[in-house]
Amino acid sequence: MSVSDSPAARLQALFEGHRLTPTQRRIAHCMVRRAADVPFLSSVELAELAGVSQPSVTRFAVALGFDGYPALRRHLREVAPAEPVVQQAVSFNAYQQAVEAEIENLRHLAEALADPGPVRQAGRILAASRPLPVLGLRAAASQAYGFAYFAAKVHPDVRLLNEGGTMIQDRIDGAVRAGASAVLCFALPRHPREVVDTLVHAKDAGLTVVTVADSAFAPVAKHSDLLLPAAVGTGLAFDTACAPMLLGRVLLEAMCDDLPDAQARLEEFDAKAAARGLFVD
User: Fold this and answer.
1) How far, rounded to the nearest angstrom, does the alpha carbon of residue 262 sit from its chain's CA centroid?
2) Residues 6 or more apart from 5 whose CB is under 8 A from it?
3) 222: DSSP letter
Protein backbone atom coordinates (compact mmCIF):
# COMPACT_ATOMS: atom_id res chain seq x y z
CA MET A 1 0.00 0.00 0.00
CA SER A 2 1.43 3.41 -0.90
CA VAL A 3 1.39 6.26 1.60
CA SER A 4 -1.22 8.09 -0.47
CA ASP A 5 -3.49 5.02 -0.20
CA SER A 6 -3.06 4.54 3.54
CA PRO A 7 -5.99 4.99 5.94
CA ALA A 8 -4.25 8.03 7.46
CA ALA A 9 -3.86 9.69 4.05
CA ARG A 10 -7.50 9.05 3.15
CA LEU A 11 -8.59 10.51 6.47
CA GLN A 12 -6.49 13.61 5.94
CA ALA A 13 -7.94 14.03 2.45
CA LEU A 14 -11.42 13.89 4.00
CA PHE A 15 -10.61 16.81 6.31
CA GLU A 16 -8.88 19.01 3.76
CA GLY A 17 -10.89 21.93 2.46
CA HIS A 18 -12.94 22.30 5.66
CA ARG A 19 -12.56 25.28 7.98
CA LEU A 20 -12.05 23.61 11.34
CA THR A 21 -12.07 25.16 14.78
CA PRO A 22 -9.07 24.51 17.09
CA THR A 23 -11.07 21.79 18.87
CA GLN A 24 -12.02 20.20 15.54
CA ARG A 25 -8.39 20.32 14.38
CA ARG A 26 -7.48 18.46 17.55
CA ILE A 27 -10.05 15.75 16.76
CA ALA A 28 -8.86 15.51 13.15
CA HIS A 29 -5.24 15.23 14.26
CA CYS A 30 -6.13 12.47 16.72
CA MET A 31 -8.06 10.57 14.04
CA VAL A 32 -5.16 10.71 11.59
CA ARG A 33 -2.78 9.44 14.25
CA ARG A 34 -5.16 6.60 15.17
CA ALA A 35 -6.34 5.89 11.60
CA ALA A 36 -6.32 2.13 12.08
CA ASP A 37 -8.52 2.31 15.18
CA VAL A 38 -10.88 5.19 14.53
CA PRO A 39 -13.48 3.37 12.37
CA PHE A 40 -14.13 1.15 15.41
CA LEU A 41 -14.29 3.86 18.09
CA SER A 42 -17.43 5.28 19.64
CA SER A 43 -17.83 9.03 19.86
CA VAL A 44 -17.14 8.83 23.61
CA GLU A 45 -13.92 6.88 23.03
CA LEU A 46 -12.75 9.29 20.34
CA ALA A 47 -13.56 12.27 22.56
CA GLU A 48 -11.48 10.76 25.38
CA LEU A 49 -8.52 10.12 23.06
CA ALA A 50 -8.66 13.65 21.63
CA GLY A 51 -9.21 15.26 25.01
CA VAL A 52 -12.49 16.94 23.99
CA SER A 53 -16.16 16.57 24.87
CA GLN A 54 -18.44 14.03 23.20
CA PRO A 55 -20.68 16.80 21.75
CA SER A 56 -17.56 18.27 20.13
CA VAL A 57 -17.09 15.01 18.24
CA THR A 58 -20.70 15.15 17.05
CA ARG A 59 -20.32 18.77 15.92
CA PHE A 60 -17.11 17.81 14.13
CA ALA A 61 -18.95 15.11 12.15
CA VAL A 62 -21.68 17.58 11.21
CA ALA A 63 -19.04 20.12 10.12
CA LEU A 64 -17.73 17.51 7.68
CA GLY A 65 -21.21 17.15 6.18
CA PHE A 66 -22.48 14.05 7.97
CA ASP A 67 -25.73 13.67 9.91
CA GLY A 68 -23.76 12.73 13.00
CA TYR A 69 -20.86 10.66 14.23
CA PRO A 70 -22.42 7.26 13.38
CA ALA A 71 -22.67 8.35 9.73
CA LEU A 72 -19.06 9.51 9.78
CA ARG A 73 -17.94 6.20 11.28
CA ARG A 74 -19.83 4.23 8.62
CA HIS A 75 -18.10 6.33 5.98
CA LEU A 76 -14.70 5.68 7.56
CA ARG A 77 -15.27 1.93 7.50
CA GLU A 78 -15.85 2.22 3.76
CA VAL A 79 -13.02 4.59 2.78
CA ALA A 80 -10.40 3.70 5.40
CA PRO A 81 -10.93 0.02 6.19
CA ALA A 82 -8.43 -1.40 8.62
CA GLU A 83 -8.32 -3.99 11.34
CA PRO A 84 -8.15 -2.55 14.84
CA VAL A 85 -4.68 -2.69 16.32
CA VAL A 86 -4.39 -5.23 19.11
CA GLN A 87 -2.34 -3.70 21.89
CA GLN A 88 -0.12 -5.95 23.97
CA ALA A 89 -1.16 -5.91 27.61
CA VAL A 90 1.89 -4.23 29.12
CA SER A 91 1.75 -1.88 32.09
CA PHE A 92 3.86 1.27 31.74
CA ASN A 93 4.37 4.03 34.27
CA ALA A 94 3.73 7.65 33.25
CA TYR A 95 7.33 8.26 32.18
CA GLN A 96 7.44 5.12 30.06
CA GLN A 97 4.11 6.05 28.48
CA ALA A 98 5.59 9.38 27.38
CA VAL A 99 8.52 7.59 25.74
CA GLU A 100 6.22 5.04 24.07
CA ALA A 101 4.11 7.91 22.69
CA GLU A 102 7.21 9.54 21.22
CA ILE A 103 8.24 6.23 19.64
CA GLU A 104 4.80 6.09 18.03
CA ASN A 105 5.22 9.65 16.76
CA LEU A 106 8.52 8.65 15.18
CA ARG A 107 6.85 5.64 13.54
CA HIS A 108 4.26 7.96 11.99
CA LEU A 109 7.04 10.23 10.75
CA ALA A 110 8.86 7.27 9.20
CA GLU A 111 5.67 6.26 7.39
CA ALA A 112 5.21 9.80 6.06
CA LEU A 113 8.81 9.89 4.81
CA ALA A 114 8.14 6.82 2.65
CA ASP A 115 7.26 9.53 0.13
CA PRO A 116 10.39 11.73 0.21
CA GLY A 117 9.01 14.15 -2.38
CA PRO A 118 7.80 16.92 -0.02
CA VAL A 119 11.05 16.96 1.98
CA ARG A 120 13.15 17.00 -1.17
CA GLN A 121 11.05 19.85 -2.53
CA ALA A 122 11.51 21.75 0.73
CA GLY A 123 15.26 21.14 0.62
CA ARG A 124 15.48 22.66 -2.86
CA ILE A 125 13.45 25.71 -1.82
CA LEU A 126 15.59 26.35 1.27
CA ALA A 127 18.91 25.78 -0.48
CA ALA A 128 18.00 28.35 -3.13
CA SER A 129 17.13 31.11 -0.64
CA ARG A 130 20.03 33.50 0.02
CA PRO A 131 19.71 34.52 2.82
CA LEU A 132 17.58 31.88 4.56
CA PRO A 133 15.51 33.16 7.53
CA VAL A 134 14.61 30.47 10.07
CA LEU A 135 11.66 31.32 12.33
CA GLY A 136 10.65 29.72 15.61
CA LEU A 137 9.16 31.40 18.68
CA ARG A 138 8.48 30.25 22.24
CA ALA A 139 8.21 26.42 22.30
CA ALA A 140 9.62 26.20 18.77
CA ALA A 141 12.57 28.52 19.40
CA SER A 142 14.92 25.64 20.24
CA GLN A 143 13.92 23.80 17.06
CA ALA A 144 14.72 26.87 14.97
CA TYR A 145 18.01 27.40 16.81
CA GLY A 146 19.10 23.79 16.30
CA PHE A 147 18.30 23.90 12.59
CA ALA A 148 20.02 27.27 12.11
CA TYR A 149 23.12 26.13 14.01
CA PHE A 150 23.75 23.20 11.69
CA ALA A 151 22.46 24.91 8.53
CA ALA A 152 25.03 27.68 8.97
CA LYS A 153 27.76 25.06 8.50
CA VAL A 154 26.66 24.47 4.90
CA HIS A 155 24.46 27.42 3.86
CA PRO A 156 26.18 30.76 3.17
CA ASP A 157 23.65 32.97 4.97
CA VAL A 158 21.25 31.72 7.64
CA ARG A 159 19.32 34.24 9.72
CA LEU A 160 17.78 32.97 12.96
CA LEU A 161 14.49 34.56 14.07
CA ASN A 162 13.81 33.03 17.49
CA GLU A 163 12.84 36.14 19.45
CA GLY A 164 9.56 37.95 18.92
CA GLY A 165 8.82 41.62 19.16
CA THR A 166 8.16 44.58 16.93
CA MET A 167 11.37 44.08 14.94
CA ILE A 168 10.64 40.61 13.63
CA GLN A 169 8.79 41.85 10.55
CA ASP A 170 11.62 44.36 9.96
CA ARG A 171 14.02 41.41 9.89
CA ILE A 172 11.82 39.62 7.38
CA ASP A 173 11.87 42.76 5.21
CA GLY A 174 15.65 42.95 5.55
CA ALA A 175 16.01 39.34 4.41
CA VAL A 176 13.80 40.03 1.40
CA ARG A 177 15.89 43.09 0.46
CA ALA A 178 19.02 40.93 0.71
CA GLY A 179 17.54 38.42 -1.76
CA ALA A 180 15.69 35.84 0.34
CA SER A 181 13.12 33.79 -1.54
CA ALA A 182 11.87 31.54 1.29
CA VAL A 183 11.48 31.29 5.05
CA LEU A 184 11.56 28.14 7.16
CA CYS A 185 9.19 28.15 10.14
CA PHE A 186 9.03 25.76 13.08
CA ALA A 187 5.55 25.98 14.65
CA LEU A 188 4.63 24.03 17.77
CA PRO A 189 1.83 24.29 20.34
CA ARG A 190 0.83 26.50 21.85
CA HIS A 191 0.91 28.45 18.61
CA PRO A 192 1.82 32.12 19.19
CA ARG A 193 -0.32 34.61 17.30
CA GLU A 194 2.92 36.40 16.41
CA VAL A 195 4.07 33.44 14.33
CA VAL A 196 0.87 33.51 12.28
CA ASP A 197 1.20 37.28 11.81
CA THR A 198 4.83 36.91 10.75
CA LEU A 199 3.99 34.25 8.18
CA VAL A 200 1.23 36.45 6.75
CA HIS A 201 3.77 39.26 6.44
CA ALA A 202 6.35 36.91 4.88
CA LYS A 203 3.90 35.73 2.23
CA ASP A 204 2.84 39.32 1.50
CA ALA A 205 6.54 40.12 1.04
CA GLY A 206 6.79 37.37 -1.58
CA LEU A 207 8.54 34.64 0.41
CA THR A 208 7.75 30.95 0.00
CA VAL A 209 6.84 29.59 3.44
CA VAL A 210 8.06 26.11 4.40
CA THR A 211 6.74 25.01 7.79
CA VAL A 212 7.49 22.15 10.16
CA ALA A 213 4.42 21.91 12.42
CA ASP A 214 2.89 19.48 14.87
CA SER A 215 -0.07 18.77 12.59
CA ALA A 216 -1.35 19.33 9.06
CA PHE A 217 -4.27 21.09 10.78
CA ALA A 218 -2.13 23.54 12.77
CA PRO A 219 -3.18 27.23 12.63
CA VAL A 220 -0.14 28.01 10.45
CA ALA A 221 -1.21 25.55 7.74
CA LYS A 222 -3.20 28.02 5.64
CA HIS A 223 -0.26 30.45 5.70
CA SER A 224 2.27 27.85 4.53
CA ASP A 225 3.14 26.94 0.94
CA LEU A 226 4.62 23.61 2.03
CA LEU A 227 3.83 22.10 5.43
CA LEU A 228 5.69 19.09 6.84
CA PRO A 229 3.88 17.60 9.87
CA ALA A 230 5.52 15.86 12.82
CA ALA A 231 3.49 15.20 15.97
CA VAL A 232 4.45 16.27 19.48
CA GLY A 233 3.97 14.21 22.61
CA THR A 234 1.42 15.46 25.10
CA GLY A 235 1.71 12.95 27.92
CA LEU A 236 3.89 15.08 30.22
CA ALA A 237 3.35 18.49 31.78
CA PHE A 238 5.23 20.01 28.83
CA ASP A 239 5.02 18.77 25.24
CA THR A 240 7.86 16.69 23.83
CA ALA A 241 9.09 17.30 20.30
CA CYS A 242 11.36 14.45 19.22
CA ALA A 243 9.62 14.01 15.84
CA PRO A 244 9.77 17.72 14.84
CA MET A 245 13.46 17.80 15.80
CA LEU A 246 14.21 14.71 13.71
CA LEU A 247 12.22 16.08 10.79
CA GLY A 248 14.33 19.24 11.02
CA ARG A 249 17.49 17.12 10.69
CA VAL A 250 16.00 15.24 7.73
CA LEU A 251 15.23 18.59 6.15
CA LEU A 252 18.85 19.64 6.70
CA GLU A 253 19.97 16.53 4.84
CA ALA A 254 17.65 17.33 1.94
CA MET A 255 18.96 20.90 1.84
CA CYS A 256 22.56 19.65 1.78
CA ASP A 257 21.71 17.53 -1.25
CA ASP A 258 20.93 20.75 -3.13
CA LEU A 259 23.99 22.68 -1.93
CA PRO A 260 26.84 21.50 -4.16
CA ASP A 261 29.55 22.86 -1.85
CA ALA A 262 28.00 21.53 1.36
CA GLN A 263 30.62 18.79 1.85
CA ALA A 264 33.48 21.18 1.16
CA ARG A 265 32.10 23.63 3.73
CA LEU A 266 31.84 20.87 6.33
CA GLU A 267 35.40 19.75 5.68
CA GLU A 268 36.61 23.35 5.94
CA PHE A 269 34.84 23.75 9.29
CA ASP A 270 36.31 20.49 10.59
CA ALA A 271 39.82 21.59 9.60
CA LYS A 272 39.44 24.97 11.33
CA ALA A 273 37.89 23.36 14.41
CA ALA A 274 40.85 20.96 14.66
CA ALA A 275 43.35 23.81 14.27
CA ARG A 276 41.65 25.76 17.06
CA GLY A 277 41.28 22.74 19.32
CA LEU A 278 37.56 23.53 19.42
CA PHE A 279 36.34 20.10 20.54
CA VAL A 280 37.61 17.69 23.17
CA ASP A 281 38.14 14.22 21.75
Assistant:
1) 25
2) none
3) G
201: CB partners within 8 A, 6+ apart:
169, 172
Long-range CB contact pairs, 82-89, < 8 A, 24+: 82/7, 82/35, 82/36, 82/39, 83/36, 84/36, 84/37, 84/40, 85/36, 85/37
Tell me if residue 234 falls in helix, strand or coil: coil
d(CA 225, CA 203) in angstroms, rounded, equals: 9
pTM over 0.85: no
Distances (CA, A) of 29 to 3, 185, 194, 203, 238: 17, 20, 23, 25, 19
d(CA 5, CA 67): 26
> What sign does the CA torsion over 9, 15, 20, 25 have?
negative
- Per residue in 230-246, pLDDT (tens digit) is 999 887 888 899 999 99
Question: Tell me: the pLDDT tens digits for 77-86?
Answer: 887 555 544 4
Give the separation between CA 82 and CA 79, rounded to whole angstroms.
10
